Amino acid sequence: MENLVFRKVIVGDIEQLKVLYGELIKDRNYETCKLKDYFSKEQNLLDTYAVCLEEKIIATAQLVIYENLVRAPLKKAIIDSVVVKNGFQQQGVGSFLISNLIKIAKSESVELIMLISSYKRYKAYDFYRKHGFKDEGLGFILDLTKS
Fold this sequence. Notes:
The chain is 33% helix and 25% strand. The protein has one domain: Aminopeptidase. It has five helices and five strands; from the N terminus they run E-H-H-H-E-E-E-H-E-H.
């Protein structure tokens, strides 16, 4: 797909992000005020990226880079919240997004990228493997809103 633009998310993108995130998690209500609070924190703006086509966001993800304390001085990154808008999947948009995130990680001397994906997104697994990610380890989650 041509004319794609990769950029950091800005506060003015909130309404588009609400729609995009709502496509992925249909049972969640994304409130504009909460997203504004989230993106008012500078670090969250630094970590969140978008792919745009004609100024419309069609994909997004977070890339969090950090120094690992146990394996210091190893620099790691986590890719999370990867979403490609319905109707734009399997057209190269996700590959464009992941490739750009990997370029950023390399430019920051990251040695290891971990990627988080829901256990229900089977199609995404093959996509991530295609981009060099390997199944390794086991992740755990604790939902503090339910305890």
